[in-house]
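Case 287 in the screening queue. Each case pairs one protein sequence with one candidate compound; here the compound is fe (ii) ion. For every case the pipeline is the same: read the inputs, emit a complex structure as tokens, and attach any notable structural observations.

Predict complex for case 287.
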Amino acid sequence: MAPRNQMNIRLLTLADLHQAPIHYNRLPQIIQEHRPQIVALVGDFLNASEDNEKNGLLSEAECAKRLSELDVNHLLFVRGNHEDANWAKFVRAWPLDKRPLTCLYGTAFIYGPLVILGFQCTMGWEGEWARSLPKQGNNLSRNPAETGRKRLGVHVQRWLKPIMRTLGPAARTIWLMHQPPAGLPIAAPIGFNPWFTNFVDRYQPLLTISGHDHNTPHTNGTWHTKVGNTTCVNVGQELKTGYCIVDFEFQSSNISLPKSMTVTAFQWKQSFTIKKCSAQIDKNKVP
Ligand SMILES: [Fe+2]
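Case 287 output:
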């Protein structure tokens, strides 16, 4: 691995922490071990239940405190079905004066040449999440005049198409979506999102990273699979914290597709590399 800078970027992704001490305790060690520039939590870092503390889980306020103290430059949040009414407690506890709360919701995060897209989750109640988000951009504000976003529901095209037009092929680098696309061995049918499948098929991103179904990847022995030109990943989640490291190598500091990207899955201790990332896609499939 080359020294990390804006040409060599390391991303750590985790999903489905569910306020569990075993995962929250482990997270600072994982960051210390891998030193990513960006950490993305791909949904269900909270757990929508009234009985969390009774069941030995952390409070929303404790989760906010611990995540806000992580030693990483950029921390991104993507909503899962468990970010529900409980999200309000998390936001209230977040120290916005010390660290931005960066939420991707049909939006892009750009770091040097890297473009990361964050999808909505179509399950659960996204009202509290949308109400807390800034009218523009990804960073939450305490100013009511700057706050409040329309809920996305199942509507993907209304935000994805303008992003693809503005950012071009680089917007196909990596898509974070809590629910996996449909019909794949990395999730059971109940966990699929058929709308996401249509857009994966149409735009052929290089990589999607999901969570939501913790068990099926382990049941099927499969944490990544191909759909056309796209590799879809779900590492699952067990007692040992599951997570991904994605190492991007770029040829230019301008917004672009990476030259290569290597995805490593823990606890699978396996990796694969996507090389010569191409800007070519089937024009017939793009509206
Ligand atoms: Fe979920």
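Case 287 observations:
- Residues 282-287 have pLDDT under 50 and may be disordered.
- The CA atoms of residues 54 and 228 lie 45 Å apart.
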